[in-house]
Specification:
The complex is a heterodimer of chains A (about 45) and B (about 500). Chain A has about 45 residues and is mainly α. Helices cover about 95% and strands about 0% of the residues of chain A. Classes of the chains: A mainly alpha (about 45), B mainly alpha (about 500).
Amino acid sequence: MSGSALFWLIIFAVSALVFFGTASVITVLGIRDLRDLLRKSERKR
Amino acid sequence: MNFQILDWIILLLYLSLSVFFGIRAKRYVENMEGYFVAGRRVKVALGSATLIATEIGVVTFMYFGELGYVTGLSCFVLGLIGFFGYFVIGKTGFVVSGLRRLKVITIPEFYEKRYSKNVRLLGGILLFLGGVLNMGVFLKMDGIFLTETMGFGPEVLSVVMTIMLLIVISYTVLGGMFSVVITDFMQFVVLAFGMLVATLFVLSRVSFIDIGTAVTQQFGESGYNPVVNPRFGWSFLVWMMIGSIAISALNQPAVSKSFASESPEVGRKVFLYTGITLAGRYMIPMFWGVAALAMFGPSLNPTTAMPRLLGAVVPSGFLGLMVAGMLAASMSTYSAYLLAWSSVAARDIISPLSSKELSEKITIRLSRIISTLIGIFILVFGLYYELPATAFQYIAITGAMYAAGAFGCVAFGLYWKRANVVGAYASLVLGAVAPLAFLILAQFQESLPPSARVLVDVNVSGFLSFALATLGMIVGSLASQRSHPPILLLPDSEKGESP
């Protein structure tokens, strides 16, 4: 495999890991935010 | 047929839950701000999830997969450029924080505050036209994707797509931004899982070495170097560099997520965290496209190669999960776009044309009607329109049609005191000229004289739109400072408002 291919594939692997890692964190924290949004909106209503 | 009973059960379960929660959100809509921007109570993680879900649709998977198949690994550069654009916005709050601070609901509202009511009207029309044309191709791409992955004929899929559109319209129309945020979050979780499943199955069948070999054999250096790749080159890269910041910060469906955030700081962070994921979510479908090249060779239709790969490598059960993820991605995109463009039409086109001020109730009702009409339009447009370039380039050029002028008006309006109404008109009109010329002339490109062919080069046209919009704002404003003195916006502190 050439150096150029290796370069782009490493960039891809890192980017994909960052995506899935961030997505996991956002999922967990997002549930908390969603509950908070609905609670506040319910109160306002 | 690739789709089995288990896949159908997963898919129907997911669609039913989406409709249930989407329609249930109607109870939270207490007024116009509640309908259009969820009462401005969205926090960072939820805002990031909903923005990411909005920006990923089957159409993005399709055009990135197509790019991967026809350009090799060189298209990965777009992931890095997009990441750079979002990172700049996320770190500096460029445009998005300024607009959020002004508490606008749509971008053209800023035009009225900074320039005039008529600039708002013109800006609203261009934003609406460019936005709806941009959206027009989504359904077609979704249809192709589902045809290839599920293994049905196109005649069945037009029915499936119509049902999907009806589901999205039903909850978007009823619950507005609350429905969009709640369903986007569910869709984000499902689509991220679907992407993981698909990537793992692709990697189980196609190795990195297979990909390196296929790209070298098919493209040589242009498979790795975007500058020498005939589909890209410097003009494309510079256009993307500017466009990634401008289109990201001024794309109404995306920026409305910042408007819905609980503060300008939260709005900025939403862009930052969304940006961190951007390189990955661009490159993953591009990788699937390159993997399709390695697996099937170069003889397939580039648009269908990637979904055919997924249909072949993902087994039953997981296929239902992956298709649910892809449909989730599309539905979140449709709902955000429908709400964004209908809000622009109701608030920035119909309302300024109306002789009396429209009540909140009528504005919401209008927005609901327009959402439905847009849905019908994209169904018809998607079935009959033939793309003049790759899907990615079509999306980028229609995006440039409104983003170039909006970039001139908003960026200069926020950060340049001399920006005035003449500059705003010039920027909006000149920004739309090159993309419009491209879309029209591309239909007759065979009969064009050689000297005019440059206008049907999608990369030149996109680059020109931003250059002309910027030039129009600067020259127009400087030439008319005396006749049209700029209207300066007072900081919130001087108006006695909290940020």
